[in-house]
Amino acid sequence: MRIVLGVGGGIAAYKVASLLRLFTEAGHHVTVIPTEASTRFVGTATWEALSGNPVSNSVFDDVHQVNHVRLGHEADLIVVAPATADLLAKAATGQAGDLLTNTLLMARGPVLFAPAMHTEMWQHAATRANVETLRGRGAAVLEPATGRLTGADSGPGRLPEPEAIYDAAMALVQGQSDFQLPLAGRTVTISAGGTREPLDPVRFLGNRSSGKQGVALAVAARNAGATVRLLAAHMDVPAPAGVEVVPVETALQLREAALAAAADSDVVIMSAAVADFRPAEISDTKIKKRDDHADPVITLVRNPDILQELVELRNLKGAGAGEKQQLIVGFAAETGDSQGDVLAYAEAKLHRKGCDLLVVNHVGTDRVFGQDHNSVVILARSGSEPQEATGTKTEVSAAIISRIGLELNSVSPRA
Known about the structure:
By secondary structure, this protein is an alpha/beta fold. It is built from 13 helices and 19 strands. The strands form five sheets. An eight-stranded mixed sheet has the order 12-11-8-13-16-17-18-19, sandwiched between helices. It has a five-stranded parallel sheet with strand order 2-1-3-4-5, with helices on both faces. A two-stranded antiparallel sheet has the order 6-7.
């Protein structure tokens, strides 16, 4: 596929190098057209090296090829990132002062704008009008991500992550002209990994969780357009780029972080493996073997039920007029026994906890924990049919996030 990648003059231009690599590694032919201002952030040599093609922003280069006409006609897709307030205004008003704006006027295929600017610029009436104008003409304009901006500012205006822009671009060329990133504008908090409860300075009670599923969920939510906060207990894998990471160790620390994060979250996904119990006392020194061979006695106390507490807090707070309640998703790592099978225990847990969705894992010594594949069943409090998802943890996460998007964007309110 022939792609024109327009680069606007914002500091987020450096992130577009990763987007270019995603396009080229997928086998697409990419022509980069940076604005003059954008070359103050990333030079043309970078774009030429990564794309393997010459780069220009002038209509007077290679005049014999009539590039200001040819590029727009030949492009199967045009992506503009970052689409600054200035670029959106020029595109909406049909200006043609450089090679990129000329190419946009000549475009015959789909056009995708990925905005990035300060919050006040994005929310300004002029910018909003320009966005609506472009959308009205058939262009796709993504919602910017919410988070840290240049300097100390924070709010809507961050460039969506390169993976999210790539996914949106591929959806657009596949004919999904009415596509939306399902979690655009949403804030999602995800817990991941396994908590550790200290016994003494060197020992702890833990579990086999690797954090792979939680990290895959964070990536899927990020790629779906969400602002993602990852509450990271012990994990065997690194946290993904483009998400806020809050490190925790114990169940009590996770509880504190989860309650704080839930305050501004549209979705809370509790996928961490949280210890049900913790030692009643923590020794200040290493517990040693005694000469009399007496075995130590360790008394355990119950940890708080974080998921249930989040549900109770959500229900107490309620939703504002015209708003939907926060969506809460729990995970159940279950094993069957003589008293019941995995789903029977999971359904009982769903009703006991009161969360909206419960993702059920059938776990064992060599199942789920630490593995790259997973098989889950998604149960809904509404009573809808259970949904199965099987595959890599990336594929399972995509299915879970897709289901969450459907729940959030459903017409009928949740019971």
